[in-house]
Amino acid sequence: MAFETLDITDKGSARIIYLNRPDRMNAFTVQMAHDLMAALEEADTDDSVRAVIFTGNGRAFCAGMDLSPEGNVFGLDESIDPNSPDMERNRDTGGMVVLRMFRMKKPLIAAVNGASVGVGTTMQLPMDVRISSKFAKFGFVFSQRGITLESCASWFLPRLVGMAKALEWSFKGNVFGADEALAGGLISEIVEPDQLLNRALEIANDFTANTSPMSVAINRQLLWRMMGAAHPMEAHKAESRTMLHTSTRDGREGVQSFLEKRPADFKDAVSSGPPIGLNWDDEPPFS
């Protein structure tokens, strides 16, 4: 599928999604949100795609929301009361994108090549690994624009970097460099610019070369979803079901290949659906 704001290529089992508005520093638009959701759906349902890498074409990753359109630049209908049930039709577009990322069954990797502020930073939060060039910039700049956190950042950010750092960055609204992002736990690695994509591909290969696609998919969903569980019993119940599922499928092959000292041949396709009790497309209603 061709996309208006994205450029997509495959390298082995990794799909690379380039944000592709280089003349606008890949600034985020409502169209980009729709393109990203469609591209994520396409990658998630393709069993040949084992991991997804996000980066930007040109010198930026994503310079935040494109502020040039007329009207509400965030794509919101100002005629709808914020407390009205009609808000279901008036949702933050960045939030819709990251909710689709949250439901993904494939590892998501951000290779941040340059400026990424506002939604350019918050869209990275549900990704599983974030690495950057030394020239990357980050910023939760919303307070300096008179708006709030978006893209579900109030849920993701403190879980990734801790409440104190999340509050500091959100209150200040400043732009900061890769060194501060690394020290604060937002990214895990700083890479030379000409090696950034290669490093992201290496990470993707580490996740996928010798692993069961179903195991990776389930583990990703368990870890993200259990962060909000009230008691470890919730994890115990889910893991009991997923262990039963995997132990009768790829788990048998994993044990047999270990005993026979040969590479495993995993066949449980992610597209076949989740184990009973782990509905990875389940999402609470907006209201």
Main attributes of the structure:
globular, 6-stranded mixed beta sheet, Lyase 2-enoyl-coa Hydratase, Chain  A, domain 2, 2 domains, 287 residues, 2-enoyl-CoA Hydratase, Chain A, domain 1, single chain
Shape by Cα distribution:
globular
CATH topology of the largest domain, by name, is 2-enoyl-CoA Hydratase, Chain A, domain 1
CATH architecture of the largest domain: Alpha-Beta Complex
Number of domains: 2
The biggest beta sheet reads:
6 strands, mixed
Please tell me how large the radius of gyration is.
20 Å
Point out poorly predicted stretches. none
Which secondary-structure class do the elements indicate? alpha/beta
Number of strands: 10
Number of helices: 10
Q: Please give the CATH class of the largest domain.
A: Alpha Beta
Order of helices and strands: EEHEEHEEHEEHHEHEHHHH
What does this structure look like?
It is a single chain. Helix 1 packs parallel to helix 2, helix 4 packs across helix 5 and helix 8 (213-226) packs antiparallel against helix 9 (232-247). The strands form two sheets. The chain has a six-stranded mixed beta sheet, sandwiched between helices. It is built from ten helices and ten strands. It is globular and about 60 Å long. The two termini are 32 Å apart. It has helices at 30-44, 93-102, 119-122, 153-161, 163-172, 178-183, 196-208, 213-226, 232-247, 250-260; strands at residues 6-11, 14-19, 51-56, 60-62, 108-112, 115-117, 129-133, 137-139, 175-177, 189-191. It has two domains: 6-208, 2-enoyl-CoA Hydratase, Chain A, domain 1; 213-272, Lyase 2-enoyl-coa Hydratase, Chain  A, domain 2, CATH 1.10.12. It has 287 residues and is of the alpha/beta class.
